[in-house]
Amino acid sequence: MKDYILEVCVDSVESAIAAVRGGAQRLELCANLVIGGTTPGVSQFKQIRKACDIPINVLVRPRYGDFLYTDYEFQMITEDARMFRELGADGIVAGFLKADGNLDVERLKVLKEKVGNGSMTLHRAFDVCRDPYKSLEEAIDAGADTILTSGQQNTCFEGRELLGELIRKAEGRIDIMAGSGVNVSTMACLMDEIGARIFHMSGKEIVDSGMIYRKENVSMGIPGIGEYDIFRTREEEIRQAKKLMEEKACLRKNV
After folding, report:
1. Are 219 and 228 in contact (CB under 8 A)?
2. φ, ψ for residue 253 (rounded to 5)?
3. Where does the UniProt annotation place the signal sequence (predicted)?
4. Rounded distance between C-alpha atoms, residue 245 and residue 228, angstroms
5. Which superfamily does 5-214+226-254 belong to?
6. How far is it, in rounded angstroms, from Cα 22 to Cα 24?
7. Which residue from 6, 109, 116, 204 has the highest number of Cβ atoms inside 10 Å of its Cβ?
């Protein structure tokens, strides 16, 4: 299974446990997955670290929105990165852009110093950068171990052409991890078409709240998202993805 890696993005202890039971090889921990993820809480990390014995990378993103951060926000990112590493995180997930759309290489290098010998993933800030090929080389130079990308499209299936080109140009110098819209079907396609082998998925489903009394006409958050809809990782979804990886690994071994 060294040829394939399945990373599952989770924002709760329940989802983390389900992901591990399903066969995830690595977790990306965040909060607020429904808005793309933000920095998780310390107690959240500690509980998941205690419950799960696989590598955990922590997303450090202080807010929703773009990746052009103020000096205050960047200070928060570096301090949080150092803190989570000290608490036992295996790696940090982050990304920085300049106003002109180029990768902020200097800040990425500063973060790498804070991460130390842990892994560093450049997240989907890459998907809204100006030049993916230039940013690929800059990420490698900055010491990133992985780029999480959908191929600069809304889903990795839509962006599979660029994903394939990035995998070829990377030449094993950095991992290209396909994310956004990942399921068993898209994984099979990307494995066969472009040779993708590292995937990032949430496998989420909507679980109905246990609340009996409900004030349906009051909204606390994002319009269109129900107050009584809880997002959780579906264990069986992860299990099916892991099974596909095992089958593909077996086929490659026998070729």
Report:
1. no
2. -65, -35
3. none
4. 34
5. Copper homeostasis (CutC) domain (3.20.20.380)
6. 6
7. 6
User: Scanning the structure block, which residue is given the tokens 């202890």?
Assistant: 13
How far is CA 170 from its chain centroid?
19
Distance CA 113, CA 94 (A): 13
Torsion of CA 79, 82, 88, 94, to 10 degrees: 80
> Which ranges constitute the DSSP H helices of the chain?
13-22, 42-51, 71-87, 105-115, 132-142, 160-170, 184-194, 235-254
Residue whose structure tokens are 């579906």: 234
Q: Cα(80)–Cα(14) distance, rounded to whole angstroms?
A: 23
- Name the residue ranges covered by the structural domains of the chain: 5-214+226-254
Q: Which two tokens stand for residue 178?
A: 């396909």
Tokens 């973060």, located at residue? 111
User: pLDDT tens string for the chain (255 positions)?
Assistant: 458 999 999 999 999 999 999 999 999 999 999 889 999 999 999 999 999 999 999 999 999 999 999 999 999 999 999 999 999 999 999 999 999 999 999 999 999 999 999 999 999 999 999 999 999 999 999 999 999 999 999 999 999 999 999 999 999 999 999 999 999 999 999 999 999 999 999 999 999 999 999 988 887 777 777 888 899 999 999 999 999 999 988 887 765
